[in-house]
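Write out the 3D structure for:
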Amino acid sequence: MSEVAPPRWRFPRPRSLMWQNLLLLVGLAIVIHACVLAVHLLVLRSNVLGAAETMAHQIRIMNSAFALVEPSRRDEALTVLRGHGLQAIEGEPPPGSDLPPNESPYALMAGRRVQAALAPDIKLHWAFVDPKGGATFWVRLNVAGRDTWLMSRTDKADERGYNPLAVSLLLTLGLSGLATIVALFIQRRINRPLRDVAAATRRISEGGGQAHLPVYETSELATLAAQFNEMVDSLHQAEATRALMLAGISHDIRTPLARLRMTLALEGGETEAMAARCIGQVDAIIGQFLDFGHAGNGESPVECDLNVLVQQTAAEFEAEGHPFELQLQPLPRQIFRPVAMQRVIQNLMDNALKYAGTGLQVRTWLQGDDMHLAVADRGAGLAVGERSRVLQAFVRGGDAKDVGGLGLGLAIVERLLQLHGGRLQLLAREGGGLEARVALPVVDVNTSRLPGLP
């Protein structure tokens, strides 16, 4: 026996179109910002390193130039330096470090690059003068043969705390929030026409009501609405043609049958009984076609009791000499199409009578979130492979050749149950026979609605 492969893991994603659009927009915003940030960092890094190289080059030039100054002119050279805003001292500078203190990553990068590009006898030293004045840097140069520390301040103290990663995070959050607002706005414009389409298709499935979409302003939605409304008109025309055809079949065939029945009744004899049976079969066939074509369309749902419908249908069979044993448990009132639901009960009971005729029983009970209806008999039953096949239109069981009908009874039941959100199962009955079991969802009649209703 081959082993079943484990299910492949898939990345979970939301089923809502709104959240899918939101994630796409937020992801797009993050990717775009990450790309812009990467380009910004690369350009800024290149500029910072270039400026550091230039600064180191200028310091080397100054060091070489002041080293050539004659010792007698040293004081004059220092005066020139002080005139350009540089402070010169003979001793050691204030305590500090080799790198800019508490500066941005780019300042640290520049400090390392400048220090690495200087000769060993040239040294940089960083220290704070005061919080508002910012950091200062000291450079040790050879002025007229003597080591001299020269001091200069940074230009802007308010740039000391600049952190590109923190700014990037804030921008990402801001762009994500903007993407969320845009996604909600876009989805709101999409949801309204989607709700209109869903409501229109629901009304079409009911077989009545106004199913046209309104006229939208945008060209795409206007085209969709126009095509949808054309489809609705075509469906209405096809439905009207079908109803007219069914009415014509019913009138044109049943009228001569009624005349034939009357003629045979006047003549009498055995021929009358045989012809009457044939006419009855033809009439039943026409009735099945009509039931299959209508399938509950046009009937308004109302609140009713399933047990009452069962009792009414069983009384009709009992009046014709075919009693059914009833075992009905209390059920809550539900929203049904009463004629359609009674047709479900009648077809199931009629099948049990035609194909078995013995052990006829109808049961109802409540279990979990469903109410159940079971019509059982003590006939030959059905093979497992035939139980799903006989639910199709024009299909009957293998032992049903001598039974009249077209095989539409269970197909009609299936279509009518779909209108009520129910399902049908054919099961083997304990002790022999067949059980047709219907499960209908239990809903709160005050707050819920029938599947397919607005």
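The domain at 17-166 is CATH 3.30.450.300 (Beta-Lactamase).
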